[in-house]
Recover the amino acids of this structure.
């Protein structure tokens, strides 16, 4: 494996099994042919979120596309953390940033939510999906986080699944520290009790929203220390703390195969 | 206090004591007069990293400047975490981002370091200082992190102070999880043993650099889970985990006074 030169690592919607040849989508073909300038027989890693991770070889290059022949499985599918992040959309680049970093930090589902103080009125789901896909390709995940349709806060909490704890970082000082809440949560219940975070907009939640959240049995307000974090910082800090205390940070990256793949952007 | 409308929260180099009047610098005067359009008697919060946090009132507005009369102390000076972050400068906006977020996450000193694979050849210290200052103003800190002169990795480790642990996130899987390293570090030694992190460039450390780091008694390689994090994500994730496990996240924000200050940018 150490001698393999991987030209790219790509998410695909196709089923993956040895011997078949798949066609990359238009963007991927452009990236492979024009950016990475792949040659016949060069190798590309593929994953689809279901069938594990596979090595493929470039075949039948034409002007605008190529085939990718699936060779051997590199890793079986590994489930990701079952960790949701609901967030009020932020100013454009901050939302992009939040989606990229949340993907790197192992979120399984991203749920954009409109709150009273949310300034943004549109969510470009396709753009966010593209950012999440590229981050997943880059960070060695074997899945891409799902991106839910944008909804109002009321709908989010009405439809929140039974048994999933919703942790709400609280800059007013009303919550226990996130670490102690997580440690209690792990001790009390089955460790597999799934969690989600809810991150408010730049202007914070309205008082009525905080009141409504406090009435819900599955909601815990949590503290992220004495400084007032920006919304995107709070999201990343909370996710990092979760993975370190209750998530998958006990695991190491897989053995480094000595290959390096470039980001698509 | 609940009725106070604070127009801004600013870092100043001046000494702060009741009764004196200070003059904001040119940028601050522009911000107060042209952006925030302050009026006589309106209130501005000031801190200088030494004398605590003070309420001041706007006086003697002229076309280009104003005076700020120091009124009463709001909080005595509180020491920040003694936490260093050494980092290889990243592509421009990522370095800006890292400095802003590290400030929010309570770093006391930022140390830019050139490594073998660092692509950047210049560090704009003034720009980074301005970003750190604004982040400190915004996140309710009472100090601004120091920014050291850029140095080579060899000089950093040669001059590293005795008794300060240097934690190096390691994406090759060679380190124990950061949480367990921190917990051991807290148990074994005095909790006040200070720490620093070293974050490599986008391309990672060279093998010779990792070898040199491994030979140092104060260095521990640490793991941040199974995914390969981008350099700036690794920095924030490591700092968040530190503050949650060994830092000041047991503290809450001060009582929310119901005032809101806008970021300067």
């Amino acid at each position: 494996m150490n001698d393999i030169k991987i030209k790219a690592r790509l998410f695909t919607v196709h089923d993956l099994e040895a011997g078949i040849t798949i066609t990359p989508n238009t963007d991927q073909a452009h990236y492979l042919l024009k950016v990475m300038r792949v040659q016949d027989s060069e190798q590309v890693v593929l994953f689809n979120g279901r069938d594990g991770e596979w090595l493929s070889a470039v075949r039948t290059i034409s002007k605008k596309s190529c085939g990718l022949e699936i060779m051997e499985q590199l890793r079986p599918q590994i489930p990701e953390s079952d960790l949701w992040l609901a967030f009020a959309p932020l100013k454009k680049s901050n939302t992009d940033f939040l989606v990229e970093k949340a993907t790197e930090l192992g979120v399984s589902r991203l749920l954009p939510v409109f709150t009273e103080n949310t300034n943004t009125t549109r969510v470009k789901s396709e753009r966010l999906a593209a950012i999440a896909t590229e981050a997943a390709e880059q960070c060695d995940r074997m899945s891409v986080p799902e991106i839910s349709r944008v909804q109002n806060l009321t709908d989010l909490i009405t439809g929140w699944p039974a048994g999933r704890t919703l942790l709400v970082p609280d800059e007013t000082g009303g919550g226990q520290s996130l670490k102690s809440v997580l440690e209690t949560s792990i001790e009390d219940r089955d460790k597999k009790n799934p969690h989600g975070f809810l991150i408010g907009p730049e202007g914070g939640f309205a008082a009525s929203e905080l009141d409504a959240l406090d009435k819900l049995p599955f909601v815990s307000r949590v503290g992220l220390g004495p400084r007032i974090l920006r919304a995107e910082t709070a999201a990343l800090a909370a996710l990092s703390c979760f993975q370190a205390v209750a998530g998958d940070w006990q695991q190491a990256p897989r053995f480094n195969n000595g290959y390096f793949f470039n980001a698509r952007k």
